[in-house]
Each structure stands twice: as C-alpha cells, then as structure tokens.
Specification:
It contains twelve helices and no strands. With about 280 residues, the protein is mostly helical. Helix 8 runs antiparallel to helix 9.
Length: about 280
Amino acid sequence: MSAFRTSGPARAGQYAALLAYLVFLAFPFLWLVSTAFKPARELGSLHPTWIPHDPTLENFRQAFDEQPLLRAAGNSLLAALAAALVAVAVATPMAYVLARRRSRLTTAATGWVVVSQAFPFVLLIIPLFLILKNLHLINTLGGLVAVYVVWSLPFALWMLTGYVRAVPTELEEAAAVDGAGRLRILVSVTGPLLAPGIVATALFAFITAWNEFFFALVLLKTPEKQTLPVVLTHFLGAEGVADLGPLAAAAFLATLPSLVVFAVIQRRITGGMLAGAVKS
C-alpha cells in the first residue's frame, strides 16, 4: 500500500494544481457576475475591480426592456428539453444493441459514431438546410430540435454504450433464466443500472442544445422563433460595440439553467450506480 502513497510536497502540489485549475474555470463566470451588477460608470472605469462598489440591478432591467429574453429563453428551453429526451430515447436501445451484439458491423458503427463527431459545422449546415427546406422545417423549432438530436446522438450513443458494457451480463442471464424477455431485461434489470448514465447523457444533450448558436442563427429567421444565444447577439451595436452591462446581465441569466440543472441532478449522476442490481 505504501507504493500508492504520495509524499507531503507531492500532495501539496496536486492540491495547488487543482486549485489553479478551479480558478481558471471559475474566472470567466465570476467576472461575468461582477460585470452584470456594475453600474455604467464602473464599467467604463480604467481600473476595473472584482467587486462592484455600487452594485445595481439596472443592467437586468435594461436587458429585459431591450430584448425579449423570456420568449427566447422559452424557445431555448423547449428545444433543449425536446432534444435531450428524444436523443436519450433513441440512443438507449441502440447503445444496448451495440454493447451486447459484438460483431464487425457494430464495431464499424461505433467507429463511425466517434469519427462523425469530428465533422465541423460548416460542412453540415448546407446539406441540413436543404433537407429541412424540402421538409418545410426551416424557421421552426421542430426542425431545430431534429438538428440538435442528430448532432448530439453520436456522443450520446457512444457514452451510453460504455455504460451498458459496464453492467454485468450475469444479471441479465439470471433474469433470462427466470423467463424474462429481452425487453423486460432492458427495462427492469439493465435500465435501473443505466440511470446515472442516462441522466448524464440527457444533461449533455440539454446543455449542448441550450448553448448552441450556429444552427439556431442559420435555421431560425423570425424574431419570435429565435433562441437565447441568438438574442444575446442583439446587444451588439451596428459597429460591433457591445452594450456591456445588459449583455453581461443577460448572459448571466442564460447560464443559470445549466447550473441549476446540474446542481439538481449531480447526485443522481454519481450515486445509485448499483440501484436495482439486487435480484428480488
């Protein structure tokens, strides 16, 4: 056991590196929060400070007055939730087949899933636009949801396949001996064990769709259909000058749903890995 122990200086270095990493990750968000509550005179100061001297909610009021943030947030929420649910519903049975039916075909399919993630947006947007135009789905949230599902499905499938392979096959074999069919095994035996993976995958699909900008910009034309990331660009002037205070306030509000969703379900992701494993 002593071979796995680290010395005091090494452990201190590990904690220091972890702290530096956390500071690196938290800096943009903390600066965004600070900017959102600063009055205009502090935003134009040559000596910016971390903590506003005179915090105000004026930036939030201006943000809601200038742009339809609630309507845009509703569009984003609807698209993100629909994309997450559909992606998980499609990826779960597909992942089960890929994990349990080992063959050259499934190996090639898994490889294609991984390779497809390397395709840039620019190569896909024109074919997607033409397909959605023929289906009369341009400028609709349904078309945007379909694009989000297609875009998040490869990673969701790859992620859930790993979770399925981690489930012991002995549990399924025992259920099969008791007379359970393949569907019953997936729902009653494998399903509960996949719950953390399903939640994590749904969270990934939700956050990806919530933050997505490029597809929403190209596919949605009317202001009533635009999502929150697209509406945030309206705080930029004609010459590219940002209305910094309201923009920071709106961007801060746009990050809250992702943080809240993760805070609510993070225990579900890390806990209950063996829930449902006991055969009754």
